[in-house]
Amino acid sequence: MRVLVIGSNGRVGSLLVEKLVKYGHFVYAGTRRENFKSDSTNIRYVHIDLLGDQKSIAENMFDAEVVFFVAGSKGKDLLKVDLNGAVKVMQATESKNIKRFIMLSSVFSLEQDRWNESFLKDITDYNIAKHFADQWLINNTKLDYTILQPGVLKETAGDGNIAVNIKYPGENSIENVVDTLIQSLNEPVTIGKVITMCDGDTPIEEALKSL
Hints:
two-stranded parallel ribbon, Rossmann fold, 11 strands, 23% strand, nine-stranded mixed sheet
């Protein structure tokens, strides 16, 4: 497929681009850096500025068939990037008649009563931004969405095993998160689902099929 990755230079996005190409997809790698190029014929870097307007974002989506939103401001501009930037991408996606949208979010962002728990207090502002972005995707679009909500990301090798619909957050190998994002594209059962996850004992494909 022709896939657009928003946030292609981040920890998750860079590995996501690499693996999507490995699995045979053509990737539009969205980045705010201009004139960024790749040696791969299956990667085309495109200028996507989440602080720009919706029209300019849509123009650089080209003929993508699916959008992965894995961008983030690392806490530096939560309202303009993590929230409003995400909404503008959703609006641009619909304006291009792209249906499939896969969002990387934050564990329990939609469960406000959990934000004061000790393991979430440090990211309350981030969860607020993600909360409203997720709500917009669910309630204000007609996109075929999947929202993946991992907890803490760790730069460790993934073993391909996760737990979903968790009650308590756990650590997440970035590689496991990336593989779960990609497998979500292959599993129609994930459409319209909000999936909390952490590293676990169940193979990713099996865990998603159980939703």
